Amino acid sequence: MRSLTIASLFAACFVALSKGECPKDTVSILAINSSCIYMSPATETLDMYAANKKCEALGSGGSLYEPKSEREMGHVLAHYGSDVVGDYDLFWLGYANMKAKKGEETVVESYWGGMSNKTNMPSGLWARNQPLEYAVEVDNICTAGWLKQVGLFSLSCDRVFRYICQVPK
């Protein structure tokens, strides 16, 4: 298997996605349902906002990966498990603490939702003792995963980690 630079990986993604398929020449790409899943190289760590922009640049509808179930997330972790750099190899995922007005009132309701479509995060994805209690009261809190355990963690969006993208086929 040949090694790809980030630029050539983006080009391969663009060509393959324009044909309705995922690039097949790298283990960085995994096809799940109707999406191509891509994990950033170990050398590329970004804050959540920059990571999401990178995912958007991969193709139309690109965003940080939003696992639909614990089982799906386990499948992705199994695929990328050999890519672990350290014991605490965290990566950004596409759920964040969203704020929504409740009707016409000024009361703001906080919920965990997908950044791509603002829908509620599926239940059962949190790691043990997560989310942290303060996380629903504070802005700028996003979700990160850990390659050694299925489950999401609530962390400040400003921290820098690797990231996983999803791009519709």
Shape: globular
Q: How much β-strand is present in the residues?
A: 25-35%
CATH topology type: Mannose-Binding Protein A, Chain A
Mean pLDDT: 75
Number of strands: 8
User: What Rg, in angstroms, do the CA atoms define?
Assistant: 16 Å
Overview of the structural elements:
With 169 residues, the chain is of the alpha+beta class. The chain has one domain (6-168): Mannose-Binding Protein A, Chain A (Roll), CATH 3.10.100.10. Helix content is 20%, strand content 30%. Strands 1, 2, 3, 4, 5, 6, 7 and 8 form an eight-stranded mixed beta sheet that branches. The longest helix has 13 residues, at 6-18. It is globular, with a radius of gyration of 16 Å.
Short synopsis of the structure:
The protein is 20% helix and 30% strand.
Main attributes of the structure:
169 residues, alpha+beta, Mannose-Binding Protein A, Chain A, 8-stranded mixed β-sheet, 20% helix, globular
Layout of strands and helices, then pairs:
Blueprint: H1 6-18, E1 29-32, E2 35-39, H2 48-57, E3 63-64, H3 70-80, E4 90-101, E5 108-114, E6 141-146, E7 149-156, E8 162-168
Parallel strand pairs: 4-8
Antiparallel strand pairs: 1-2, 2-8, 3-8, 4-5, 4-6, 6-7
